[in-house]
Amino acid sequence: MIKFSEDKLKEVQAMIDRYPEGKQKSALIPLLHLAQDEFGGWLSPETMDYVASLLHIEPIEVYEVATFYSMYNLKPVGKHVFEVCHTGPCMLRGSDDIISYIRQKLDINVGETTADGMFTLKTVECLGACGYAPMMQLGMHYKEHLTPEKVDAIINACRNN
Ligand code: FES
Fold this sequence. Notes:
The chain has helices at about 5-15, 30-40, 45-55, 60-65, 90, 95-105, 150-160; strands at about 80-85, 120-125, 135-140, 140-145. With about 160 residues, the protein is an alpha+beta fold. It folds into two domains: about 5-65, NADH-quinone oxidoreductase subunit E (Arc Repressor Mutant, subunit A), CATH 1.10.10; about 80-160, Glutaredoxin (3-Layer(aba) Sandwich), CATH 3.40.30.10. Strands 2-1-3-4 form a four-stranded mixed sheet, with helices on one face. Helix 2 (about 30-40) crosses helix 3 (about 45-55) and helix 3 crosses helix 4 (about 60-65). It is elongated, with a radius of gyration of 18 Å. The chain starts with 5 loop residues before the first helix and ends with a helix. The model has no long low-confidence stretch (mean pLDDT about 95). The protein binds FE2/S2 (inorganic) cluster (FES). FE2/S2 (inorganic) cluster (FES) binds near residues 90 and 135.
């Protein structure tokens, strides 16, 4: 059974305490981030049910949010997750070609993870960095003005990390 450590439970309580009495559901988004970080990089049904129990809300209320935002992973992901923006401005600047290049280079399709568990490829909607298109998010960082050469360098850096 999954459970946060005592230290993490204190963080959870601090998140809940930011909101007025009875509005504990407002802590759902940061709590899901914490849960995803703590429990293997993705949100299993068990994890989402646990989060619901911590907030005293129904599991469906957690599923609704977790399935809406692309930053939550609903199945296991690789060590490095490439979230490539494919919204209009990035598409006009060649995101389709970048996505194809990554697919071919890693031999996976969008939504898949490499057999060695190193990389997952996702496509996401606008990440607010349209001026740097085409771009992707990799962990806490944005990788901008992507080209095949830059993708090669990113993959190599990940492999050596
Ligand atoms: S369209 Fe890609 S960051 Fe906005």
